[in-house]
Each structure stands twice: as C-alpha cells, then as structure tokens.
Amino acid sequence: MRIWTEADVRAGVGLPEVIDSLTEVLAHEAEGTAWNLDKTMATWPLRDGTADATGSAHALGAVDLVSDLAVFKTWVNTPAGASAVLTLFGASDGRTLGVAEAGAAGSLRTSAISGVATRLLADPAADEVAVLGAGRQAFMQVAAIAAVRPLRRVRVWNRTVAKAEDLAERIRTELGVDAHAVSSLGDAIQDCPIVTLVTRAAEPFLDLSDLADGAHVNAVGAILPTHAELVPGSLAVSSLTVVDSEPNARRASRELREFDGWAGVRTLGEVVTGKIARPARPRLTVFKGLGMGLSDLAVARVLVGGGR
After folding, report:
1. pTM for the whole structure
2. What is 2-106+294-303's CATH superfamily?
3. CA distance 244 to 169
4. I want to staple 298 with a disulfide (CB 3.0 to 4.6 A). Which of 21, 86, 132, 253 is the partner?
C-alpha cells in the first residue's frame, strides 16, 4: 500500500492533467461505467471565543470500472482548519492501493471541475474573470480557468480588501496574469465574461441578472445546505444551469432548492458527452458545484498513472 503525502501530490499531479482526467471520468459516468457514492455530512455548533461557528464532517466516494478504481474521501472542516484523506482501492479485486493526504488533492479536484465547466460553457473568446472570494480555494480556481482560457485580466473581490490584494499579487506572481483587487462587487462583475464564486457566504449576495449577457458563472462555494451565494430567483435568467451531481445538488444546494427549477437542470457529464451543448447566444450559463466523488477519483487516476 502506498502513502502519498501532500508534497507527493503537489509534485506528481498537475492541474491540466486533472482537468483532462475528470473529462474522461465524466464520459465514463455517462456511459454507465462510473458513478458517485453519494455525499453525506454532519454539522455541529462550535464556539470560537467570540461568536458561534459551525464544524462539518463529510464523506463521499466513487467507482470507475474503466480505470479499475474505487475511492473514498473523508474530511472535517472547521473555522480553525480542515483536513482530508483520500483512500484508493482496486475496483476489481478490492485491494488497498494507497492513502493520500487530500488537502492539495481537494484543491485540484475543486478547481478542475470549474476548469471543465468553463472550457465547455464559457464564451470561447472570454479572457477575463472575476473571482468573488479570496480564501484558500480561490487561487486554484483562477489557475483552472487560466488552463482553459487565455486570461488577460483577473478582478478579485473579497469583503476583506487585504485578502483580495494578497490574492491578486499571488496571481500576478505565479500565473503571470494581470490581476487587481476591486473595492465593490459591482466593479468586479461589470461586463465580465466569467465569474467564479468561492465563498463561505451564509446568505445570497449575487443577483445573476446583474451579470453581462453571455457570462458564465462557476458557483462552487456555499456547499452547506444552509448557505447560498446566488439569489435563488435570479437563476431564472440562466439559459443553461449545470451541476456536477444532481443528487448532491438536491440535498446540498439551497439556491437550487429554493429556485425549484429542477426540470431545467442538467449535469456536466451530459455536456462532456455532447448530449447538451452551450446555447449559441446564452443570456447566462451557470455551473453549480457541490463536490462529488468522481472529481476525487479523477485526481486518483493521475496519482496511479491513469488507472490500473
């Protein structure tokens, strides 16, 4: 049994590889040879010394017969920190292949799915992104978009301006892309062709009707059933709304539950296989990601060399 440390994952797995791996895994899902093990979670109250806060524990998994892999990921998230572990098994023989620390892997899988969604749903000419939120997942979200679009500029908005400025500096230094912190949400989204939300917002703050025609939205924050980033009613302006996993979205997306427009919601696997395509002139396209085991399996495939 192999052990992959965080350093091993960072050294051995590249974001473009995971984007391609996930695209293949989603195709396997559409063919009926791969599937998710539904996410489960629990939350509990915490007190951080100044205010009430919430801790959460999560578990999910996936199987891909083509890659001969079964994976499980478990993690705990608190305001004070988070940690995760990814366990890999052979799907055909049940053998334990290894265990990976999954902090870096989690950033790769969360960003890679936004990369897949952006590659398929954003305007091919889009060269600018607004990232709303400057937490630990934000940089990799920008990196994923840079992997599928030739970014010219990044706008960063965060309620804490200093964090936005720090993220903009990191983007300029590590990605070589012009990036600037903006002071208002309106300045961030005005006429921007790609908007990524990656926050822990408890209440909606973005009305989709304020976005430019043709914009694409990656909404990958607010993954707790009580939280929301998008004003639910504003989803009515979306020409195409896509999720990573419909069962997970039905359980965990407050925005989609409150909007209650499930008949128009499609999966990213349907887009990957061409069953559903980006409209020729969409008002908006929206990807809502809640996290799924197949995303973690896509990282695992790269760790073991594309399947066994």
Report:
1. 0.92
2. ornithine cyclodeaminase, domain 1 (3.30.1780.10)
3. 31
4. 21
